[in-house]
């Protein structure tokens, strides 16, 4: 997966995708993306880990994936599966600071967020 999807990752394309589809994707998917993004930006993670994260984020960015992203309710299911898998692989690198950054950015974009929804995601990766 790394070689196929990492080439689709760039910060610019990630922010464009989130800006355009964040409400459709939902807070859980965007939170997963933000966690991965902030882990990737960490100086403590290896290049190999960064490439793995870039592949997962590249899959999210890529407009043609297993389930069409504009399909209501199920369109981001495959994306979330890939994101959760990547998060589980880097969970030891998700610091409280990274969680706070992701939650703060999520709050800026979504306003009030459902803490239970975010906790459900975290329970799947930790």
TrEMBL record:
Q: Which domain of life is it from?
A: Bacteria
Q: Which residues form the DUF1232 domain?
A: 49-85
A Pfam family that this protein carries is DUF1232
The UniProt record lists the keyword Protein biosynthesis: no
The record describes its membrane topology as:
Multi-pass membrane protein
Q: Where are the transmembrane segments?
A: 21-40
Compartments, as annotated in UniProt: Endomembrane system
Read off the InterPro entries from this record: DUF1232, UCP031804
Query: Which keywords belong to this entry?
Result: Membrane, Transmembrane, Transmembrane helix
Q: Does the keyword section mention Coiled coil?
A: no
Main localization of the protein described in the UniProt heading: membrane
This protein's GO cellular component annotations are:
endomembrane system
Which protein is depicted? Uncharacterized membrane protein YkvA, DUF1232 family
Q: Cite the source lineage.
A: Bacteria, Pseudomonadati, Bacteroidota, Bacteroidia, Marinilabiliales
């Amino acid at each position: 997966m790394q070689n196929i999807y990492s080439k689709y990752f760039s910060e610019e394309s990630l922010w464009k995708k989130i800006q355009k589809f964040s409400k459709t994707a939902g807070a859980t998917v965007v939170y997963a993306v933000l966690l991965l993004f902030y882990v990737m930006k960490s100086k403590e993670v290896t290049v190999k880990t960064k490439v793995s994260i870039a592949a997962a984020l590249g899959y999210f960015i890529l407009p043609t994936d297993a389930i069409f992203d504009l399909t209501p309710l199920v369109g981001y299911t495959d994306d979330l599966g890939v994101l959760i898998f990547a998060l589980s692989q880097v969970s030891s690198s998700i610091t409280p600071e990274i969680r706070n950054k992701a939650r703060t950015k999520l709050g800026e974009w979504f306003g009030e967020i459902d803490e239970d929804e975010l906790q459900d995601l975290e329970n799947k990766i930790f």
